[in-house]
User: Which sequence fits this backbone?
């Protein structure tokens, strides 16, 4: 109806890491980084869509951080079909997002010296199936590895500036405000000369 609304939330998504997110030693860095699949209870911005009727206003819909929506809004079910969160299990993967030091929240980002600020570890088997995964990324999202290589090269060449800008933006209006992010970013900035050299692919 004109007053109904739904929130579509990715059930499964892909993450692009510019450095290896794997715990296994010996996984060589690549010019284009790594892609891994994951599922999580909270909603990521890249896989979040609001659907609403003509008479619905923004004030009628849930407010707050996207990562907390599932705590304040029920998931849809056989008995709850509106005013709820619908997980997109029929579309896997639903989205792809980058996990790099450009992230304000720095959640699940590989940081200084290969340290892993990871909320969830990717399956080790994904390290051996990267060619297959990248073919899937191209098929599902039209993303080509050679373009990702350009992005990764640009990211690394500007990493000090990116990290400094991220630090400046912490806790400003519209941005994340987590003390842990500042700690991680400062650590990354201190280690950048050696870390950047180690992450480059020769």
Assistant:
């Amino acid at each position: 109806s004109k007053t109904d609304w739904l929130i579509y939330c990715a059930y499964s998504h892909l993450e692009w890491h510019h450095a290896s997110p794997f715990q296994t030693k010996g996984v060589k860095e690549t010019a284009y980084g790594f892609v891994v699949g994951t599922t999580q209870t909270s909603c990521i911005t890249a896989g979040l869509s609001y659907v609403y009727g003509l008479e619905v206003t923004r004030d009628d819909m849930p407010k707050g951080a996207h990562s907390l929506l599932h705590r304040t809004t029920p998931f849809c079910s056989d008995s709850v079909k509106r005013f709820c969160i619908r997980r997109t299990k029929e579309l896997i993967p639903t989205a792809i997002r980058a996990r790099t030091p450009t992230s304000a929240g720095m959640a699940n980002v590989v940081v200084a010296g290969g340290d892993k600020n990871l909320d969830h570890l990717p399956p080790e088997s994904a390290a051996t199936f990267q060619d297959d995964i990248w073919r899937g990324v191209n098929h599902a999202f039209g993303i080509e590895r050679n373009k990702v290589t350009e992005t990764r090269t640009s990211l690394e060449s500007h990493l000090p500036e990116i990290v400094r800008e991220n630090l400046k933006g912490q806790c400003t209006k519209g941005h994340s405000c987590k003390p842990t992010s500042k700690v991680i970013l400062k650590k990354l900035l201190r280690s950048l000369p050696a870390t950047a050299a180690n992450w480059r692919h020769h």
